[in-house]
Design brief:
Length: 430
């Protein structure tokens, strides 16, 4: 559920009683392999000997890839600065690393000032053969990090068969300028960039399926309209300007239909929007305020929050039949996000009115619920990483609202980036 200062009271009125807490709790592990694959990381070399610029770029690219591979937790990274520095990766070097790991990553870089190039290779040390080699080039310094992230994700895919998240990004709102604006950062907090200059209230960014666009709610024109950021074209334009609330929820698997919150002069409700024709269809009938929709990965169900039974609770709607089922009996529920696997829904909530907001996950029956945060300020606005192993959220544990990332079992929470102001409503890209 969104937290707009002038609209919060209009979304849900606090019910007069606190509902009973959940009774069944389970554990969810981050699905990390018990036995990690040994990957050796050699020193990266300049393409031109004795060139300081090339050496600096080589060390930069190696550092990014090293951090990405370690963050993935799939690999046992082996390093040795005294290893044979054979630029051609000859037999002596391969034999040395073979005793330590199953695979070897090497790289070369060149920085001419106006352009840069980077070549990275993955060796199978059992055979001594290159199993993957990638070449990158560009002019913008910011693109270097993306190249390194892409190669790290290629290593993850090649060795585990799973998609990596190093090239993914997070969009969120922040008020460092005195107004809430939309920002974007790499998954590791680097490449931080402000995307909007609306000089207004902007919140609730949502990514398109192909991660080329971001949709968000803004008061730029006085009404809470939805605008579209075209990241490739570098343009921002209005997307829906219906009277009242225009709040993006998420996209169907084919990217052609958005589920969203609209009020249109009435109580907020759940609608679908054809992104081409802009035709809308109301998904829910009956009384109550409903908001914060999130689409299941298979496109057959929508999770949402509604006060139809009193306090805001988490529900699931079967799109084909129109039937709904309630998953929670909390004092308050908010901002659900469906896991990429379709097995879990993460949400913010409080079990009693005396508690702070915390992050919970539930299965699709509501019988298995687990708290992921505990006694660490208010924790809200959760969003899954594209591989379902991590959750981004906002937290006030350090005295102000910041973006945090934790494992899907609630362990290892850490701030995304150090920045001024307060941050809100993160959304992780595909």
């Amino acid at each position: 559920m969104f937290k707009l200062p002038v609209l919060a009271a209009a979304i849900f009125a606090l019910a007069p009683r606190a509902l009973a807490g959940t009774e069944v709790y389970i554990g969810v592990s981050p699905q990390i392999e018990a036995k990690k694959t040994g990957v050796a990381l050699a020193q990266f070399h300049p393409s031109r000997p004795q060139t300081p610029e090339d050496l600096k770029l080589a060390e930069e690219m190696r550092g990014i890839i090293r951090a990405d591979l370690m963050y993935s937790r799939y690999f046992d990274i082996k390093e040795d600065p005294l290893a044979p520095a054979n630029l051609d990766t000859g037999k002596e070097s391969l034999d040395y690393w073979k005793a330590l790991a199953a695979h070897l990553v090497t790289g070369r870089a060149q920085d001419s000032g106006t352009a840069w190039t980077f070549t990275a290779s993955l060796y199978d040390l059992a055979t001594g053969k290159v199993v993957m080699e990638k070449f990158y080039q560009g002019k913008e310094p910011r693109a270097r990090r993306r190249a390194a992230h892409l190669f790290a994700d290629d290593v993850v895919m090649k060795l585990t068969g799973r998609k990596g998240i190093a090239h993914s990004k997070l969009a969120f709102a922040n008020n460092a300028t005195g107004r809430k604006e939309i920002y974007m950062a790499d998954y590791d907090g680097e490449n931080l960039a402000r995307l909007t200059s609306d000089n207004s209230i902007t919140l609730l960014p949502r990514w398109s399926v192909d991660a080329s666009r971001i949709y968000y709610t803004t008061y730029r024109w006085g009404n809470p309209d939805m605008f579209e950021i075209d990241l490739k074209a570098g343009k921002i334009k209005p997307f829906t300007t219906f009277q009242g609330l225009n709040i993006p929820g998420g996209f169907s698997p084919d990217g052609m239909t958005m589920v969203m919150t609209l009020s249109r002069g009435d109580d907020p409700g759940i609608y679908t929007l054809n992104v081409v024709t802009k035709a809308v269809k109301k998904l829910l009938n009956g009384y109550g305020v409903s908001s914060s929709p999130t689409w299941a990965p298979d496109g057959k169900q929508v999770a949402f929050v509604s006060d139809r039974s009193g306090n805001p609770q988490l529900y699931v709607l079967d799109v084909a039949s129109g039937t709904t089922r309630k998953l929670t009996r909390f004092n308050w529920c908010d901002s659900p996000s469906w896991s990429p696997s379709g097995e879990w829904i993460v949400f913010a909530g409080r079990e009693t009115s005396r508690e702070s907001f915390n992050i919970f996950i539930t299965d699709l029956t509501g019988s298995q619920i687990r708290r992921l945060t505990y006694k660490a300020g208010d924790n809200e606005d959760p969003s899954w990483s594209p591989d379902g192993r991590f959750v981004a959220f906002t937290s006030t544990r350090n005295g102000r609202r910041e973006i945090f990332i934790m494992d899907s079992d609630g362990s290892a929470p850490h701030p995304l980036a150090e920045m001024k102001g307060q941050s809100f409503t993160p959304n992780w890209s595909p």
